[in-house]
Amino acid sequence: MFDAVVQFWSSLVSWVSGHVVVPVLSFLHVGQAMGDPNDIAAAVIIAFLQLVIISCIFRPLETFAPAEVWTDRKLTRIDRTFTLLMVLGLNPLFAFLVLTPFANLLGGGADVGATAEPSGGLLSFVPGIEQHPFIAFFLYYIVYDLTYYWMHRAQHAIPWWWALHSMHHSQRQMNCWTNDRGSYLDGVLQSFVLASAGLLMGVDAAQFALLELVSELVQNFSHTNTRIGFGRVFERIFVGPIFHRLHHMRVDPSRPNLHNCNFGQVMSVWDNLFGTALYGEPIRPTGVGDPTVDADNGRGVIAMQWGALRRFWGAVRSVDGWKLQEVAFDEKDFHPIPVDHMDLHAFEHDEATVPLERTSAV
To answer: Could you tell me if residue 113 is inside a domain?
Structure first.
């Protein structure tokens, strides 16, 4: 059965490569400059699968088993646009124009991905690991997910990085498309951190593509507006929608540190291990209290990117922008303001201005 699936996948990749990718590359006169056509074909197929699964599985869950009930979904439309842009264009473009040369610079060859064995790095020092590609993948995944956990905590703790990452958190109607809502500069920084972890471990591009698909789908699911999750036991291992929704909750002035929780990407093990896990809270509104960041909800894709860059520039040139602390941003010069110097009740929204109707999930 497994061999049949592998054979089908290989045949599908070869067909897309020969009938779609190679003709397009020839038309653009770029040849092999964008990488192995088979790798590009695999990325195209993965993108298509991701869109199908989000549209046909995750989106219906928001209708039939919602965590929050909304009177309309108008704030979610921009997230769908972000996903289409990322999955169909920006992700493949960045991967093959930036990450592939980066991998080659650090020792990877043009044929990276031609084998399922480790391509060097730390995994090559594990005796006999080349005979056990699944174990190699598992070890890499652990390192990958742990790297993401600490990177994610840094995104919230370093004000200039939060200036970018806050765009992802500004969504008041968190939904199955929200995972790709984010600053493109933030995406570049994340990609270099995670790709560097992959290069350090020495896992080949084919397994990296599988890792990306699994990670993206779990994150799409964890952002879905649904009360369906992994259950009491497995949610201690994997990140589910209710668990991740608490990470996106707005600040509670009566419990100001409550929202600093649940940083895991795919595995919630790290939150439990390092004391940042939060369970058992009721459904809470998502978004941010900071009005400078919350203004993203009224913007389009380009305006949101520009707003995040303005916050970033205001923070990166400020001393407060380099201190490990939680901040809001001044509405005029975007200078970061430590929230412990502010009245958090000023962050509470006038509910009449928020186009949501909320119900608790049982």
So the answer is: yes
Enter the tokens of residue 256.
Answer: 């100001």
In a domain, 359, yes or no: no
| Residue 358 domain flag | no
Phi and psi at 255, nearest 5°, equal -140, 75
Cα dist from 17 to 25, 26, 92, 117, 360, whole Å: 10, 12, 14, 22, 48
Half-sphere exposure of 301 (CA within 13 A, CB side): 14
Tally of CB atoms within 10 A around 357:
10
Beta-carbon contacts of residue 33 (< 8 Å; ≥ 6 apart): none
Grade residue 59 by pLDDT with cuts at 50, 70 and 90.
Answer: very high
- CB burial of 279-310 (b: ≥16 within 10 Å; e: otherwise) equals eeeebbbbbbbbebbbebbebeeeebbebbbe
Q: Domain count of the chain?
A: 1
**Strands 336-338 and 327-329, sheet pairing:** antiparallel
Element (H or E) spanning 165, and its range? helix 159-169
Lowest mean pLDDT: which of 31-45, 61-75, 112-126, 282-296? 112-126
Query: What does each C-alpha distance from 341 to 157, 166, 325, 335, 338 come to in angstroms?
Result: 16, 19, 11, 14, 6
CA 279 to chain centre: 21
Q: Measuring CA to CA, which residue among 243, 333, 335 is closest to residue 283? A: 243
Which region holds residue 202: left if phi is over 0, alpha if psi is between -120 and 50, else beta?
A: left
Q: Tens of pLDDT along 161-191?
A: 999 999 999 999 999 999 999 999 998 898 8
Domain that holds residue 127: 2-353
Which position has the token pair 């989000």?
Answer: 54
User: What pLDDT, on a 0 to 100 scale, did the predictor assign at position 362?
Assistant: 31
Asked whether residue 274 is domain-assigned, the answer is yes
